[in-house]
Inverse folding.
């Protein structure tokens, strides 16, 4: 527990870098297709992040399977919501006329 306390500052760093990275990826692939684009992005990110994590948890960690499945389902909820939020928030800068 003492060792974990020394590294707790990394949690906000992890989430900030995750948000920044996902936002960057979203902007680079932005096609201005609305909420469905955000939903699609969220589902793709879920496949890329949650499924490998689920597999690693099943293989390496001796925790009840309900926690593994809960993390998998939570990702299926969280990542599409994040994608939709990206689609709602991001508005590309207008190009100057001329």
């Amino acid at each position: 527990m003492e060792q974990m306390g020394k590294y707790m500052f990394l949690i906000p760093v992890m989430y900030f870098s995750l948000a920044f990275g996902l936002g960057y990826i979203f902007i680079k692939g932005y096609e201005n297709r609305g909420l469905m684009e955000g939903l699609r992005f969220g589902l793709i990110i879920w496949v890329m992040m949650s499924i490998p994590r689920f597999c690693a948890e099943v293989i390496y960690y001796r925790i009840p399977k309900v926690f593994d499945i809960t993390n998998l389902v939570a990702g299926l909820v969280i990542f599409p919501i994040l994608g939709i939020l990206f689609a709602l928030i991001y508005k590309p800068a207008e190009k100057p006329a001329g």
User: Anything to note?
Assistant: Residues 2-89 form one domain. The first helix runs from residue 2 to 6.
